Automatic annotation (TrEMBL):
The lineage of its organism: Bacteria, Bacillati, Actinomycetota, Actinomycetes, Streptosporangiales. Residues 8-135 form the Histidine kinase/HSP90-like ATPase domain. PANTHER family: ANTI-SIGMA-F FACTOR RSBW, ANTI-SIGMA-F FACTOR RSBW-RELATED. This is Anti-sigma regulatory factor (Ser/Thr protein kinase). It comes from Marinactinospora thermotolerans DSM 45154. Gene3D superfamilies: Histidine kinase-like ATPase, C-terminal domain. GO terms for molecular function: protein serine/threonine kinase activity. It comes from the Bacteria. It holds the Pfam family HATPase_c_2. Residues 145-175 are annotated as: Disordered. Keywords: Kinase, Serine/threonine-protein kinase, Transferase.
């Protein structure tokens, strides 16, 4: 299952994206722990885009950001049932997203560190006019009830490579 939504460059979009993603994951029988992880990741990525980046440029509608997810379930895989890829695209900022090292008293700066902790991998891609930040969550074979829903990898809305592709901009790789 793949979905791409254009949302207003506004704080209320975080709730909307989280609700749509969680609804799709519930419909596929994904376990609650992974749904919670996915909800937190989409919230962090979208909040960062809204706080630090510009809306998408034309030809996108004025004042929007794009949120995408691709859910791939592969029940015949012995080690995993699949993965969830979440991405947020915006009009870019003066700097690339990076993990901050906030002080203990800082009010922000922990979002991408949380994403790195929850995701199997994450990264950024930049083209002429947009920046996309993405994260992949693995779904272990013993996690949740996938009820035989099978999927195959499809091209995601913002990344040209599949899950196995290594990107020069990928970050947060964990074993």
């Amino acid at each position: 299952m793949s979905r791409a939504v254009l949302l207003p460059h506004a704080p209320s979009s975080v709730t909307s994206a989280r609700q749509h993603l969680c609804s799709d994951l519930h419909a596929l029988g994904i376990g609650e722990a992974k749904i919670d992880d996915a909800a937190l990741i989409v919230s962090e990525l979208l909040s960062n885009a809204l706080r630090h980046a510009a809306p998408l440029p034309p030809p996108f509608p004025t004042g929007t950001v794009r949120v995408c997810w691709n859910i791939v379930l592969v029940p015949e895989e012995p080690a995993a049932n699949g993965w969830i890829e979440i991405s947020v695209s915006d009009g870019g900022a003066e700097t690339l997203p990076r993990i901050a090292r906030p002080s203990l008293s800082a009010l922000g700066g922990r979002g991408l560190g949380i994403v790195q902790h929850l995701a199997a991998k994450w990264g950024t891609e930049v083209d002429d006019s947009t920046t996309t930040v993405w994260a992949v969550i693995d779904i272990p074979a013993d996690e949740g009830n996938v009820g035989g829903h099978a999927g195959t990898p499809v091209e995601t809305c913002s990344r040209g490579s599949d899950r196995s592709g290594e990107l020069a901009t990928s970050q947060g790789m964990r074993a």
